[in-house]
Write a structure and sequence with these properties.
94% helix, mainly alpha
Length: 103
């Protein structure tokens, strides 16, 4: 009888260890899935933010090219002796027109 109780007790120990291992792997799997979903969500939002930044930087580059052209035209007018004040107002008016057209 004593031998049988010892075997039964060892069987429970092994079963408890197996159940603990099973519970550990189940919980670990759930945590890994949740972290993967969270990481995917963060990367998706980061992609959207980076696309917006790329679009804004493209718009800034286009506008800076336009302003550079306007300044070059204003410098040419000043070098040719045309009205300095007139070319300055012309620069601001073309910049304002372009800004109102883009909005």
């Amino acid at each position: 009888m004593n031998n049988r109780e010892t075997w039964y007790g060892k069987g429970l120990q092994y079963m408890e260890a197996f159940l603990k291992m099973d519970i550990f792997f189940f919980v670990t799997t759930i945590v890994v899935i949740v972290l993967a979903l969270f990481t995917a969500f963060v990367l998706w939002r980061l992609e959207r933010v980076l696309k917006n930044i790329e679009h804004i930087s493209g718009q800034v580059a286009l506008e800076s090219d336009s302003i550079r052209g306007d300044l070059s035209k204003m410098r040419g007018d000043i070098r040719r002796g045309k009205g300095k004040l007139k070319s300055l107002f012309s620069f601001f008016s073309t910049t304002a027109k372009r800004a109102s057209k883009n909005t």
